[in-house]
Amino acid sequence: MRIVIAEDDSLLREGLALLLKAEGIDVVATVANAADFLAAVGEHGPDVAIVDVRMPPTHTDEGIVAAVEARRRRPELAVLVLSAYVEQAFATELFTTGGSGLGYLLKERVGRVEEFLDALRRVAGGGTAIDPEVVAQLMVRTRPDKRLERLSARERDVLALMAEGLGNSAIAERLVVTDGAVHKHIRSIFAKLDLAPTDSADRRVTAVLRYLKATGAR
């Protein structure tokens, strides 16, 4: 796995690089701003980019804009975005670009090394990883979409865990149910969200994107 890190906080940037190198991961570049990040992606062709949401010069949305642009240039690039706190609009913007291999974590999650590395590996493998706090705040702040109201309480639990990027076995473990039960719930979710087996898009990704869009709508 080859990684570019874009983070303006030098301590966090170098700390991430040391952590990943200790895990045998190839950190091909570490940069402090969005322009250098895009240049590094073009030069090194990494598998994954870890990107801070806010970077110089304005410390507003440079990181998220650069992440979206990097994905436009290299659709196969997996992106894990880091943020100091939940930024609802940015989380929604990132995931509504579509595709696989996307993650959004709070920076505090980096300190929980195993959780962080698990999320990184899921994203690198084409999955999704969304910080549980992001999911929780989106649910609290907003009203559910009408289509989500078709789901049972257990189905909503399953979909929320899907949005965090968990696979079926991890969801089963979290909810203390069988893998078969999770599979049935997911099939029911697809049916209630009108996602037919013939849909060309990945139904799991589409369900998560609808969930994020619905819970992120004002």
Automatic annotation (TrEMBL):
Pfam families listed in its UniProt record: GerE, Response_reg
Top-rank taxon: Bacteria
A single BP term in Gene Ontology: phosphorelay signal transduction system
Keyword Lipid metabolism included in the entry's annotation: no
HTH luxR-type domain: residues covered: 144-216
Domain annotation Response regulatory: ranges: 2-122
Gene Ontology MF terms: DNA binding
UniProt cross-references to InterPro entries, sorted A to Z: CheY-like_superfamily, NreC/VraR/RcsB-like_REC, Sig_transdc_resp-reg_C-effctor, Sig_transdc_resp-reg_receiver, Tscrpt_reg_LuxR_C, WalR-like
Keywords assigned: DNA-binding, Phosphoprotein, Transcription, Transcription regulation
Transmembrane regions: none
Residues carrying 4-aspartylphosphate: D52
The keyword Transferase appears for this protein: no
Name of protein: DNA-binding NarL/FixJ family response regulator
